[in-house]
Give the backbone structure.
Amino acid sequence: MSMATILQDIEAFMDANGLSATAFGDLYANDRHLVRQLRNGRRLWPETEAKIRKFMAEYTPDQSSAAA
């Protein structure tokens, strides 16, 4: 998978779940800057991408209230 693909998948996930970039980063890794940094060219290790994909696959909307 390319970086563009994971970023597109994250963007689609955020849109589908009504999450901001900072909320996604908070929920996934307590890193509010994650999505912004990815948009600016940050690279991910394959293991990190796999963890993000697992998070998105297992996400339930009630998780967002825990981060609020």
Summary: The chain has a mean pLDDT of 90. The helical segments are 3-17, 21-29, 34-39, 46-58, 63-67. The two ends are 32 Å apart (CA to CA). The chain is about 70% helix and 0% strand.
